[in-house]
TrEMBL record:
InterPro entries: FAD/NAD-bd_sf, GMC_OxRdtase, GMC_OxRdtase_N, GMC_OxRtase_C. It comes from the Bacteria. PANTHER family: CHOLINE DEHYDROGENASE, MITOCHONDRIAL, GLUCOSE-METHANOL-CHOLINE GMC OXIDOREDUCTASE. It comes from Amycolatopsis alba DSM 44262. Residues 78-101, 247-261 form the Glucose-methanol-choline oxidoreductase N-terminal domain. The lineage of its organism: Bacteria, Bacillati, Actinomycetota, Actinomycetes, Pseudonocardiales. Keywords: FAD, Flavoprotein. Gene3D superfamilies: FAD/NAD(P)-binding domain, Glucose Oxidase, domain 3. Belongs to the GMC oxidoreductase family. FAD binds at residues 80, 212. This is Choline dehydrogenase. One of its GO terms (molecular function) is oxidoreductase activity, acting on CH-OH group of donors. Its cofactor is FAD.
């Protein structure tokens, strides 16, 4: 028997394990379905994509997407200690302050969550109103120095957009370089920054390769979890709380297999209903993203990252192409309203087959995500078997406003490709619309939309959990991960998930604070 069982050692779970176990009177078990992050490639930022469709990936995909020509869109999800923070592109972008204010949940507006961003952060630029120092998470300026990425920013300025040196500061709009979660050119994941330094605490236990199937509920209270390791059932009991931090796809799946979810759906799979919560698995959001790729003849794409000069630079002073997580530069553009509608990302590599085919030539890729999509999808069960993958329907571009905004992102990307600064890197189109007509832009968008890798919302605050992240109708059970976001943020999700976990630790250890 332990005090707290945390399910999922991802971006949020590692933070929770650190903060909860800081109290020596508290015992914590952190459970991860995947393996340790001890593979050397987890340290090298450029290697993140190498784990797609391996044992370190849940290897999800969508059901046939009705508004994207029936395609099944690949949804990589890290199955490793550190979760997405161990494999992502590393861009440190929190979202817009309006996102948190619009959540409408007490204590979760921008003023309420900013202290937790600052607490987690150790920014190499130093401390100011928006940034912190001394926290576990190292945030740094990029070290790749890629000229094609810099040319993307120059093209945006040439096209009339303004320069932004801090997307997490006074304003989000504009173009520039992303800060990244790196320490001295090495990946800074929640595993390396929050978990590994405290593994010697006697009150913290980490269990890997243990897939949790369901929460044990007795008399309306969560008392532990049941899972499987090497075909052996394992039960771990919790004296105080169970915290589910399994991610936007797996957290609702675990709840549903525990009898917590839409009653009719659960009964259809022979699952006894513990609490009828219709919104479990609903209100799924992601950033639909469309990439354009252009070939060139300069040896400055990440295809060259394995060349001796870059290996030497990385070993010598942790600089060069091996420090690139992919997204190096980008920006935000407002089309309507007061907050950005589009997030642009530039990567110095060829994108082919949704990142599944290795680049075959030097190229640059850039494009836009719909920053605040209106479309909602869902996560439901495919099978009564708890090891089966969930059924995921994103409904990308179902709302006409999302399609229109995605097309505008493609249109602006084409405009940037024609600027003088990018001419050396856009010699020929690898993936681009046949023309600039509305029909060709729409056709290209539907055929090429991919995940932005930012799923949220399936256990949202106010619908599945309360503002203390407690599951409605069940005692001693919380959800702490991206699934609790009431709506998606305009930006990447790693940073806000870490802040959510920081705040959750306070809510758990200091209720009423």
């Amino acid at each position: 028997m332990v005090d707290f069982v945390v399910v999922g050692a991802g971006a949020s779970g590692c933070v929770l394990a650190n903060r909860l176990s800081a109290d020596p009177s508290v015992s914590v078990v952190l459970i991860e379905a995947g393996s340790s992050d001890d593979h050397p490639n987890f340290v090298v930022p450029v290697a993140g994509g190498k784990f797609f469709k391996t044992r370190y990936d849940w290897d999800f995909d969508t059901h046939q997407e009705p508004h994207c020509e029936g395609r099944r869109v690949y949804l990589p999800q890290a199955r490793v200690v550190g979760g997405g923070s161990s494999v992502n592109g590393g861009a440190y972008v929190r979202g817009n302050r309006a996102d948190f204010d619009e959540w409408g949940q007490p204590g979760w507006d921008f003023a309420g969550i900013l202290p937790y961003f600052r607490r987690s952060e150790d920014n190499e630029r130093g401390e100011d109103e928006f940034h912190g120092v001394g926290g576990p998470l190292r945030v740094s300026d990029g070290r790749a120095g890629n000229p094609s990425s810099a040319a993307f920013t120059a093209a945006a300025l040439e096209a009339g957009y303004h320069h932004n040196t801090d997307f997490n500061g006074v304003t989000q709009e504009g173009f520039g370089a992303f800060q990244v979660t790196q320490r001295d050119g090495r990946r800074a994941s929640t595993a390396s920054e929050f978990l590994r330094p405290v593994l010697d605490r006697p009150n913290l236990t980490v269990e890997t390769d243990l897939e949790v199937h369901r929460v044990l509920v007795e008399n309306g209270r969560a008392v532990g979890v049941v899972g499987n390791r090497l075909d052996e059932l394992v039960e771990i009991r919790a004296d105080r709380e169970v915290v589910i931090s399994a991610g936007t796809y797996n957290s609702p799946k675990i709840l549903m297999h525990s009898g917590i979810g839409p009653a009719e759906h659960l009964r259809g799979f022979g699952i006894d209903v513990v609490v009828d919560l219709p919104d479990v698995g609903q209100q799924l959001q992601d950033h639909p993203h469309v990439w354009l790729s252009f070939g060139h003849d300069k040896p400055v794409s990440l295809l060259a990252a394995g060349e001796p000069e870059h290996a030497l630079a990385y070993e010598r002073d942790a600089t060069g192409f091996l420090t690139s997580g992919g997204p190096e530069t980008g920006g935000f553009v407002t089309i309507t309203g007061d907050a950005p509608d589009l997030q642009f990302i530039c990567m110095p590599l060829m994108i082919s087959d949704g990142f599944l085919s290795p680049p075959s030539r030097h190229a640059i890729s850039f494009g836009a995500s719909v920053a605040k999509p209106r479309t909602r999808g869902n996560v439901t069960l495919f099978s009564p078997e708890p090891t089966a993958k969930p059924k995921i329907v994103q409904n990308y571009l179902a709302d006409p406003a999302d399609l229109a905004m995605a097309i505008e992102g493609v249109r602006i990307s084409l405009e940037l490709s024609r600027q003088v600064a990018l001419k050396p890197y856009t010699l020929d189109a690898i993936a681009a619309p046949a023309s600039g007509t509305d029909a060709d832009l729409a056709d290209f968008t539907r055929r090429n939309v991919l995940t932005g890798h930012h799923p949220v919302g399936t256990c949202g605050m106010g619908r599945v959990v309360d503002a203390q992240l407690r599951v409605l109708g069940i005692e001693s059970l919380r959800v702490v991960d991206a699934s609790v976001m009431p709506a998606i943020v305009r930006g990447n999700t790693n940073a806000p998930v870490i802040a959510i976990a920081e705040k959750a630790a306070d809510l758990i250890l200091h209720p009423g604070s």
